[in-house]
Records
---
Amino acid sequence: MSKEKFDYFINGEKGKYEVVIGLEVHAQVLSNSKLFSGSSTKFGADPNKQVSLIDSAFPGMLPVINEECVKQAVKTGLGLNAKINNYSVFDRKNYFYADLPQGYQISQYKNPIVGEGKVLLDMPYGSKEIGIERLHLEQDAGKSIHDMDPSSTYVDLNRSGIALMEIVSKPHLRSPDEVNAYIKKLRTIMRYLGTCDGNMQEGSLRADVNVSVRKVGDKNFGTRCEIKNVNSIKFMQMAIEYEANRQVELIEDGKEIDQETRLFDTKKNETRSMRSKEDAHDYRYFPDPDLLPLKLEQKLIDDLKKSLPELPDNKKERFIQEYGLNSYEANVLVSEKEISDYYEEVAKLSDKKLAATWMMGDLFAMLNDKGLNISNSPISAKNFAELVQSIKSGEISGRIAKEVFEIMVESGDNPKKIIESKGMKQQSDPKELEKMINEILSKNKDKVDQYKAGKEKLFGFFVGQVMKLSGGKANPQLTNEILKKLLKG
Amino acid sequence: MSNITNQSLSEILESIKSKKISSLELTQAYIKNIENAKKLNAFVTTTFDQALENAKKFDNKPNNEQLLSGVPLAVKDLFCTENVKTTAGSNILNNFVPSYESTVTKNLWNNGAFLLGKLNCDEFAMGSSNETSFFGNVINPIGDHLVPGGSSGGSSSALAADLTPATIGTDTGGSIRQPASFTGTVGLKPTYGLCSRWGIVAFASSLDQAGPMTKTVNDCSIMLEAMSGFDEKDSTSINKKKETYSKNLKDNIKGLKIGIPKEYRVDNMPKEIDQLWEKGKKILKNLGAKLIDISLPHTKYALPTYYIVAPAEASSNLARYDGVRYGYRSQKGKDLIEMYENTRSEGFGDEVKRRILIGTYVLSSGYYDAYYLKAQKVRQLIKKDFDDSFTKVDAILTPSTPSSAFKIGEKTNDPVSMYLNDIFTVPVNLAGLPALSLPAGLDKQGYPLGLQLIGKALDEQKILNIGYAFEKNCGYKNEIKKWWS
């Protein structure tokens, strides 16, 4: 793969600017119940149907930590190559809002459960390491619904108390593309681990985006703005683009950038001020006296480490070594655990390299077209492997294979059966081919003469005639060889 | 039988067991007392019909194997009781009916007792005189012009006036021991984590602890046994084997070492308190205990530390009372913020607001380190003082309060002098230790005074034993004329 150069800069009149980005990703922990209560976390229930007395903060109710959520956070930390803290503390973040029943969010402030780690990105200009500052556990708030009634706000507490992991990156990202790669990588890692489903439509993955700009070569960071709660990668990229340009314009105009919290308006494609630093909340963090500090036994951490599945970075290396794939192919095929599982099943039964090409080509195109994913692919891995093998063995040509593939998608049938029943087997008998080619040449004497006189372009015409006569079944390689031989004679 | 209701809980249990009296007769006797004692304002809610039903049920099928068989009990209105209004003495909860039962009260009912009513208290347990309650002040049966102490003032008043055979309170900085001391009754604040906090309206989570209030030390051990125990719903609950305090109650305290902390002799303390302390020492010494002078050097910082930690936690704990989901909601206000402001302005009383403001202030950015963090550090030092002392002594004897019951209205305009009432009780909460207040004598006006026994963490049995021996040899008896009926 050719290495491109990193080139995301903003050119102002007074210089060239670099964009500095840090993300606070909120990932919903995959668990059956909430962080401090037994309520269900299933998405899509009727409003306020998954709310316990604890989630709605009735008098005298107390939180009890859900061990499953703690394990999920530790696993995620391990997946991010991060330091797991044996001692962490839950704090209260105090503020008033209608969808925050307790009047405080239980979060982790000074002592998070996971410390520094790193994530590796594959960019066209090489691989890049993004530092992780920390990961902590916290409760989600409920949802305020403002558009159901002109004069009232409705509150749905189903989400209230669901466990989130806040994953804070270092300010190591430099472009919207890197943000895209980073989020996707985080999501891949968490899906491999089974700690977050990464479903952005359902709000399982959202991010606050910190953006600042500085002249290329500057050592110090510029003043940053935080864009709150962006829930799609596309919007993150748009918001960064807009915000970075806004900041450059301010600097070029000799104006100051205010450190502030901003909102991204997806309709107008712009960010706008939500509150300035002066109006920033004073959250009055303090350790939650209802909860003891969280102490993790080293054994628990070690056991979880042992139980981790193979992670994408390792799997990619293995795919390159074991299956002879290139870095790009390996990257694509490990991007989702289900894809990698499918590929490995196919590769076991067929040509590894050809399987990769066909998966990334026709199979992905078809899935994309039909809005399906690999887990509900109409073609089973076993049938797909047979198709690949039929191509490899020369039983069918690539062109016929595409037809077989189409039929497999429609019928779900085994490719052997399709090839048999439709007589699609490739014509690879040299005698039969020679007979066919002689027939064509004798019918087109004029063209043969022209060819021999130097009009070599006509070779394609003869191939086309062979294919037409054979119903596309003639083995292309053999056809070429025999044609050349006979045209010489 | 003269009057069953002026007997101790253990005597009453005996009478029920031996069928000298039925649960129904007992319940009717208390209901009569309560109806005649409205002047004391000890009750916020009565549950007479439900109590009579339960008494009849018991009489039909008596089970005398339980610790509290067939006994009606009134409890502080800070314990959530299923389908019975629970107010915490506040306007903001004046219409709140929980759908759940607190662990501690459930434990009492599981031991054979049943609810007689809910007792008045200072609003959200913030007060030392029961004058901050939205439902009006409670009167001490000792005298019609006296406060019953606080915040469990309804509990102490009802107990001393024979309106319940025993009761429970909560103690965040002295709210069980001080009212016990003011009414000549026994009150125990258990080790933090011994009784579950689940279902108790929270004031300051790291300090709150429920405990028994009774007429005798034996009663106290029975109640403690019934109400305590591990609860997985409270993360700060201590997971340990349940003890049988009443069965193990012993009055032999020979050879036990009793610490006498010099820091508890405060300036301007009435001479009578000092005399009472001397009397206590003498009694224990005569019983064979050894008195040892000890020092708890950080005691003087306990009160300021308490008045940072407790309001800080309270300011956060009380944020949930916002009018959105339950409780009082103001009808005024054009948006969410105004609704909050009006609801909380109208729903909370002055003392609660004062503490929310103090708590918000000490947690604020820029003040956190100077106040809250420093207070947490001092708290550790106070705890360490006790840990060090308990390597040398078995228990510590101090006065319970710096004075006897004061007059209604006497301190309402002077919060600091009101807070000073807790000076001997708050160190124990900060250290999470158990402490027992025992009636020990009268001042010259004839008002009760109490002594406090502080124990090691989870050493309730020992301070109960010392209290039991003390009680037998002190000769204190509450002589209350029922002037209100």
---
Amino acid sequence: MKKTNDVILQTVTKIITFMIILFSIDLFFSGHYTPGGGFIGGLMTAAALLLILLAYDIKTLQVILHVDFKLMTATGLLIAILTGTGALLFNEPFLKHAFDYINLPILGETSLHTAVLFDIGVYLVVIGVTMTIIQTIGESE
Amino acid sequence: MEILMSIVIGILFMCATYLILSKSLLRIIFGTLIISHAVHLLVLTMSGLKRGAAPILTDGVTAYTDPLPQALVLTAIVIAFGVTAFFLVLGFRAYQEIGTDNMDEMRGTEGND
Amino acid sequence: MINLPLLPILIPFITAAVLMFFPKRIKAQRTISIISSLGAVIASFVLIFTIRQNGIQTVNLGGWDAPFGITLVSDMLSALLVAATSIITLFVIWFSFYYMDEGHERHYYYVAVQFLLVGVNGAFTTGDIFNMFVFFEVMLISSYVLIVLGGKKEQLRESFKYVLINVISSALFVIAVAYLYSIVGTLNMAHVSERIAEINQPGILTVIAIFFLLVFGLKGGIFPLYFWLPGSYKAPPIPILALFGALLTKVGIYAIIRTYTLFFYHDTGYTHMILGVLSMLTIVVGVIGALAYRDVKEIIIYNIIIAVGVILYGVSVMTPEAIEGSIFYLLHDMIIKAALFMLAGIMIAIVGSSHLKDMGGLIKEYPWVGWTFFIAALSLAGIPPFSGFVGKLLIVQGGFRAEEYIGPGLILLSSLLVLYSVMKIFTNGFWGTPKEYHGLKASMAFKLWIPTAAVVVIAIAYGVGAEAVRPFITQAVEPLVNPAIYIEAVLKE
């Protein structure tokens, strides 16, 4: 394939990737009470990674982020299920979540939920699945 | 508003049916994509399109929207996303393996007699 | 243990996630899969006996009370189906140790099977109509993965059709649920039933009933909607075909049974009449296919379609006796279809082809396979004392009591032709002069035969011990005939 000149795309990518990832983390945490959460947070992070993949190539992405996305999916899935299963130990219905208000240094009074753990699982699964799909198509070209 | 949405959904279904009945793999996949959009809009419309606040979160809200269809639509979108991605990969592999994206030419005879 | 109904879903789910970490280590994959399937079997039997003693079990996920949250409901019907599913999966996994190529096993085969188990068990257990859609999708996506596994040309072509059909039927499912929600304003199945009873099923709900029939019929393979089934099921390797044939169509049938006894039982003159006519036509086309083909796989695949017709006919009659027959036959059919496909797998492993013209005289070298097949064939056709007999007898009796004669007559006639179609395999494949076989896995035949024989033994035990099984089936029928039992158990009023 002819090498194309995409300086603009590559330069923009370098800056904007971090913004997208930061925004995705913001979205992830805002899912606590308001719209947001693991799914769209993960999708947005995947979009940032995809941008790197488009601007450079798959090798650059692997140098930056050396993880096996299939393993990432598996890890996320396991975290999500085990969080739900945790309720079984206390003889509560599956997926019942627990929360408490804890005084943390700096942050002050914060509400901590086990649902966040579940969401981290979802976040990882979404990134893993999306990137696996894109890699599957990309590799065979 | 509901009537307008119904018409839009109808048009989407029409386009999707047209695409699915064509012979190219890619067009068929686009057809399923559009059909899932139409279905998601239908789910949203079915509960009535009302303007209002989110229920439960704040006190004293009189006009609120039904949150359930939104949850359903989100689930359906996630599933449609996964299935479409899989379908694209499958279509791509089929194109590579068989060497054509025309459903007519795909009709093979091996194994049949 | 309030989460008991959840265990047969949760065990394969966790297993699938764990198995994803080391897809290349086949030994570990096999061991963990078989242990977890055994766990699912044990959990489902504990569940059955708990329900026998304490009645219907429910779990409100996340502690949100019904009808607001998602509820999982295990009545006897779903528990029995879950148990049958887990048993079949256990033996099919065992069978695939010796049948599948290593390449398949490395490509997440066991993971996909476990996810399939999650989807099927979930669809049987859920008490929420939208959640049923979600479990259907879990089941379907893993079946997509299974059907393309290997990626041969024929498989790719057939799986494209299979995925397309199922994407469209899923879209129809969501549409049906959306319509239902717009009228009754709830998704909890018990609550839906209650609301429909309050408004006494006006015409629009009958339309939705037909919509649901269309959706589940497409999955189950009833008369005009079965067209995709023979082609798609023929493509994948035998263990996958055994899982599909034994489980996937049955999920569609279960969904029809559930919705038609719980939701749409007010206007039976219309909806159940359509169901009855379609099921009779299903039997006819199934029989024609089973007689016409001379390929072992295809003959048994068309027998799936016949069984779908027989079971749904029993449901359409809607008398307690006929429904009891249907459920009896449903469980029988799951077990015996798995056994027959596994037997066909052994024949293919020996001969290297699934066509009858390449077979002949197998019984000389492999008498154990031959006689196991003979017993399975008799059982499929419903010869007493084997398991198909009791179910068919009850369905036919129920039909005659309801003063219908065409349906029961058709079922009796179809039994004869089913017997002919499988005996065709027996006479052409096992009798006659031996031919040269080109199977690559002929040395594995005995190892393959052990799990198969175990499934056949279960089928025989199910038939001979029908007297012992009957109280369980009777308990399964109660909530179907009297939806109030189901509603009360879920909503706890």
---
Amino acid sequence: MESDLPLTDPACAEFLRTNHLPPPGGHATLEAYWHHLPWDQRENGAWTLEALRAELAACLDPSRKTKAPLVLQTLEIFHGRDKTGAPEAHDLCLLPGDVICIVGPTGSGKSRFLADIECLAQGDTPTGRTVRINGQPPVPELRFSVESKIVAQISQNMNFVMDLSVSEFLEMHAESRALASPQTALQRVLEAAVGMAGEPFGPETPLTQLSGGQSRALMIADAAFLSPKPVVLIDEIENAGVDRLRALELFVEKEKIVLLSTHDPLLALSGTRRLVIAGGAVRDVITPSAQERKACRELASIDKALGQLRERIRRGDRLDELERIIS
Amino acid sequence: MKLLTVAGPPSSGKTAVILKALGWLRDEGLKVGVVKFDCLASRDGDIFKAHGFPVITGTSANFCPDHYFITNIEDCAAWGAEQGLDLLVSESAGLCNRCAPHIQGFYAVCVLDNLAGVDTPRKIGPMLKTADLVIITKGDIVSQAEREVFAFRVRKVNARAHILFVNGITGQGSWEVSRLWKDAPEEAPLTGGRLRFSVPSSVCSYCFGEVNIGEAFQRGMVRKIRIQDAASAPN
């Protein structure tokens, strides 16, 4: 005889509540509980006794409980093959706080490289690359379930689609993370997002009314503070009306590994390394030179000046003196 | 031969996901095919053909697609075996999210998309609850946070399944799907097997083609909203 499930366990109670089933009450066994359920409640919920038993057992399974997010110390990518089958020249070791820029023309193999990291390739993808986490091959569970995936993604094409205010949405995300102090986290995300976006917005602003730059800023701040993923993959954030350098700093402060697919000179030179992808392989690894670093600082001040001009245009200023400065 | 059931709301990306996942399996030398159950004429069969996959299409027309599925799956599986397939995918779109084509002992997949809204997982019945793998599509157009919340909500109604994000256009995530499909259980006998959940027993006059509205035309199983109770209910 199968031992009965502790119906009053918080995980069970929570499961019954989310599935619109009545609280367990005084029933000693699941079977007694089941027989007291009105037939239409079983029918509407599409339940059978066996299915309910299996689901409740799964809720109680300790291996399924929310685990502490993985602490990533190293992410190693061992070489695979290029499109001709020749071995790739570089093995890589990425550390928290690294900003890695991925450059190369369309079709060079950038997406495949990023996909290898996303799926934690074990020599079993077309490139033959192998990924190790903290020096170890990943356990299979890390590869086949969204909860344990290590990569968060942000791209130019992403939008908020939920019909919620900024604060309602952040609360919902914080709830899914079961954070100790969701309100503090929420406040931090909002402050960081407003700091990066050109125009301010408040907690009551509906998500779908945010401008492109505000949305991007909120996605970045949310990924930095609320997402448990230790690796962030960013696809082209240029021209989004976001303080891009501040965004990178935020991820570095939060000790994320940032993989940035970009050809924006300011971002590319701001990274710790640039990977040049060609013919399906990492062809070169460039660490910015002293000259490049210096050029990057100048680019940053040009970028800042352009940002100020944008702000003045927004205010309705005239920029007559600009002609004199440029020529 | 392995048989998999793939179910999901219309336009959630089932065909695109199947094409990408089967592509990986074919590249490894497996013989793979599809049986597509649809309620109205569909072009999906042609899409599979164009990609070189053996396919048969069944159109349920005025039958409930899930009932139609159950009465035809044995014959379809026999066809797959005749073709010498290693793996046959049965694809079907539920109409009302009340039923599921999932069979005990066979790998069951549910496809949902991120655009459906975060309350959708709670509104979908056994198709989602009894699945072994839940695939969430269209993640490339919503935020990371919305994807995480959606997956969390799916987890709340199905504590056992693998959950994966797949991009049906680029195929990102489809490799992982193909690994899980490759490990799906081998053939179990279909005849005498059991569905994971019953499909509705209701048969009313509208099931038989009645078009007139009014109590005089309502025969068989009829279920009425108790307006008084419904109006005073808290939610």
